[in-house]
Amino acid sequence: MAGSGSRDAAVTAAALPVAAAIGVFGVFYGAVGNPVLGGELTVASSIAMFSGAAQFTMVALLASHASVGAVVVAVVPLALRHIPLGALVQDRLAPGRVRRAVVSSLFLTDETVGLALTQQAPAARTMAITGGLAYIAWVTGTAAGVAGASVGGAEEAADALFPVLFIGLAAVTASTWRDAVRAAGAGAAAAVLLIAAPAAGVLGAVAAAIVVAWVGVRR
Amino acid sequence: MSNAVVVAAVAVITVGSRIVATAVLPPPDGATAEIVRRLPAPLFAAMAALSLVGSDHSGTPALVAAGAAVAVAARRSLLVVVLAGLAGYTFAEAVI
């Protein structure tokens, strides 16, 4: 069995490309958030939230002079996806609600949950390592973007990495052929739904996955 | 209302939903537990579709990267899939 040092090294190796891509998006967020929120509040938002989807949505709506209510209505569906993500790792995290709350308050993201489910290290430790690296990259990238840094064509490369990462996580978590068939079905269903109705967004994708997972479950 | 209040509200929603999901809601049981057991692979596949379809930059290189990743997915290695995806992206950027 691998020791904790080698398991941590494996987690770190898996997390570094993810953190690098997140850092690139942090630079982009800092650049677009600065004119809307101001530099200090843009960096503060990254420190307090660590949620690219929520932060980009918030800045885009504020830039178009949306009301507070409109921002909240747009962000709540994004936050709802934390419920299935939390259910996936809840019994793997440290015992005790306070410790689970501390680990998850900033580090419960699609990427950290995926790595927590696929690495040999304990889930709480995996989420702390991957979440910590990604968090540092996101906040540092935001500060760099506020300061005027530019990522040039790296944004496109980083954008291409996320589908690849999720395909890899789907592959690793598919332990049987039935899992693989369900993954293919959910990916196809989500793609069709999002092409036909782009407004379905993240909730539509999560719903497609839940429906596919639900098919055939006995009550 | 100031932008600081909006940022604070969105932070409460985002961080609060994470804490509720892991430390407040009870663990799933029965049929719900079975759905959760089956959920990881479909959920990440759906997220892949979302990040591919919903992206502003999902041109041919991103599609080639995703195709290369799918091609080696049966190996069930995150490193192999990511390397294949990066190779596909680099190839498409160079050729197209």
Structural notes for this entry:
The complex is a heterodimer of chains A (219) and B (96). By secondary structure, chain A is mainly alpha-helical. Chain A folds into two domains: 4-162, no CATH class; 174-219. In chain A, 80% of the residues lie in helices and 0% in strands. Chain A has helices at residues 4-37, 39-49, 52-63, 68-80, 82-89, 97-107, 110-118, 123-146, 154-173, 177-196, 201-214. In chain A, helix 7 (110-118) crosses helix 9 (154-173). Chain A is globular, with a radius of gyration of 18 Å. The termini of chain A are far apart. The model of chain A has no long low-confidence stretch (mean pLDDT 88). By secondary structure, chain B is mostly helical. Chain B has two domains: 1-29; 39-95, no CATH class. Chain B is 78% helix and 0% strand. In chain B, helix 4 (60-71) packs antiparallel against helix 5. Classes of the chains: A mainly alpha (219), B mainly alpha (96). Chains A and B meet through helix 1, helix 2, helix 3, helix 4 and helix 5 of A and helix 1, helix 2, helix 3, helix 4 and helix 5 of B.
